Recover the amino acids of this structure.
């Protein structure tokens, strides 16, 4: 397939580090130097599904396509207000499409997992045009009195339209179960029969373990796509990495021995918006005219699970 159009939407409320320091024992200096985040967009009165629909419409418009031309919609999402129906179905109705749709939860690597599913359906001859939407509100997962987690995240939605082509060169996915490193429990409704103890726990994270996993997994995933396609790291024009921590991005950059200029970032004013990071960054690069036809782009993301993936494609 090839990426024919992109779109993204951010919530209007901007929360700066200084605003967080107003109610948390933290500082702009700590957050900025340890994470690279200066401000983030946080949902206030928006609904995530409306942002997802708008991002999808922008991607369709950018691709010069209408919703009735879509054969499949994949939505990557970790959490939203609906348990059911699935977010992809709400997006389908919102854009006026009629094709089948599916939600996946692959944490921050969801966009890359979704592209692999789209590509596989395409290779199997089942679909031509696929809409992938990542819509995330991780700010609703954290405890806002926990300075170790809530400072990291922002919300947003990003989308891409995939059409027939041979620009997607390689996708590599991986998973490595580690449920005690990054997790959240939610309390389900009680029944008269529940006898086990259940708890409601906001997002918990062993930051340093996640950091180490992230650098290792992303470096390995990207290297695997390069090896399989016979490209060198030097031949890649842009590295679009998950925006979790600028120090993670810098470590991967050093591992690949590539110049900083090849690594566009938006973590400074977006924070980590889970699986939306990659398509939002992709859309911003697309719309700013950063990409030239034929540019080789490596995308990589990692998240809770652990899961990770890399995508090598030509613009
Ligand atoms: N402000 C001030 N101090 C803080 C803050 C804060 N916001 N957060 C933590 N600290 C303190 C800690 O309490 C600790 O203090 P102590 O030494 O007195 O106990 C000290 O700072 C150091 O804490 P560390 O956790 O060791 O700090 P570290 O340098 O590892 O940075 C961070 C923490 C930013 C979370 C880092 O580990 C990281 O980025 N990890 C990866 C996170 C990540 O990538 N998450 C993405 C996955 S999310 C997803 O996929 C859904």
């Amino acid at each position: 397939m090839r990426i024919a159009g992109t779109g993204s939407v951010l919530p209007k409320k901007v929360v700066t580090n200084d605003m967080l320091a107003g109610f948390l024992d933290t500082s702009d200096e700590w957050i900025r130097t340890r994470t690279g985040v200066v401000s983030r967009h946080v949902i206030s009165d928006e609904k995530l599904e409306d942002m997802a629909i708008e991002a999808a419409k922008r991607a369709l418009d950018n691709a010069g396509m209408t919703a009735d031309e879509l054969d499949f919609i994949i939505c990557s999402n970790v959490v939203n207000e609906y348990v059911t129906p699935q977010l992809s179905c709400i997006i389908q109705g919102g854009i006026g499409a009629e094709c089948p749709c599916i939600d996946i939860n692959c944490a921050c690597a969801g966009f890359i997992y979704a592209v692999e599913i789209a590509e596989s359906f395409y290779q199997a001859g089942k679909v031509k045009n696929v809409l992938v939407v990542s819509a995330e509100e991780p700010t609703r997962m954290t405890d806002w009195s926990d300075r170790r987690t809530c400072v990291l995240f922002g919300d947003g939605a990003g989308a891409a339209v995939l059409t027939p082509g041979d620009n997607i060169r390689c996708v590599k996915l991986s998973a490595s179960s580690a449920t005690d490193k990054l997790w959240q429990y939610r309390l389900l409704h009680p029944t008269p029969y529940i006898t086990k103890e259940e708890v409601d726990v906001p997002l918990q994270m062993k930051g340093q373990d996640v950091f180490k996993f992230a650098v290792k997994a992303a470096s390995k995933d990207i290297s695997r796509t390069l090896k399989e396609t016979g490209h060198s790291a030097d031949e890649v024009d842009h590295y679009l990495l998950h925006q979790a921590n600028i120090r993670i991005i810098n470590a991967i950059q050093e591992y690949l021995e590539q110049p900083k200029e090849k690594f566009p970032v938006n973590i400074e004013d977006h924070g980590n918006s889970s699986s939306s990071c990659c398509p939002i960054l992709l859309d911003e690069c697309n719309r700013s005219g950063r990409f030239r036809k034929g540019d080789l782009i490596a995308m990589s993301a990692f998240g809770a699970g652990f899961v990770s993936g890399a995508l090598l494609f030509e613009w």
Summary: The two ends are 11 Å apart (CA to CA).
